[in-house]
Here is the input.
Amino acid sequence: MKRSVALLSILLLVSIAGPGNVFGESAKDRAEALWAARGDLSKAEEAMTAYETMVQQTPKDYDALLRLTRIHYWIGQNLEATDEKRALSHYGKGKEYGKRAAEAAPDQPGGYFFGAACLARENSLKGSFSNLFGIKEVRKLNEKTASIQADYFYRGPDRFFCAYYTKLPGLLGGNVSRAIEHGRKAVEAHPNYIGSRVFLAEAYLKDGKEDLARRELEAAIAVPEAALPDVIPEQRLEKKRAEALLKKISR
Here is the structure.
């Protein structure tokens, strides 16, 4: 009789708490563990599913919505070279989750910033200058991010404006001097974030300063993998970009 009562209690607990919680692992714990393993794209896909389940249960969960924005951006980045159509699909979804994150927590910078990142990559794949409205919207979202927290994601707004002024033609507002100014701000604030050095190197190249570009790329490649533990997969991706660009200008 006691065994039956104990078994019934366990079954009741499972039905209330859901799988995993009985043993101390919540849905969020599992999702975060998968997120930490996102360098493996199969784990990134699993993380996406886990966070989607969380959002279905709690539609205004800012942290889960932000993770979804970032995971779609991350997967899209990794797919661009081999499957542009799927990459665009991920950027589109990431853009929508970014909007939802911003609506759930309008005083937080993440939804604006990563929603803008997804929109920027979407614009780039479709043709950067075929969608001037999209470009203006990306700028607007980064200005909003900066107004809330200028240092967000390793000085992300300055990193964006470095790329923005580098890649935009002069007739549309491109300005290499302003690009370099923003790039230097990002690098000075967080010298171990590789992406900032790569964008600054691109600005230097456009300005004809190959020696300075080479210096930034060499410094980027020299950054230890664990210098920023929370963005190791992103750092690896940016380091590959730095290596490719350095190889290109060294020919």
Observations:
- The chain has two domains: 27-149, 151-251.
- Residues 84-104 form the longest helix (21 residues).
- Residues 205 and 213 are 6 Å apart (CA to CA).
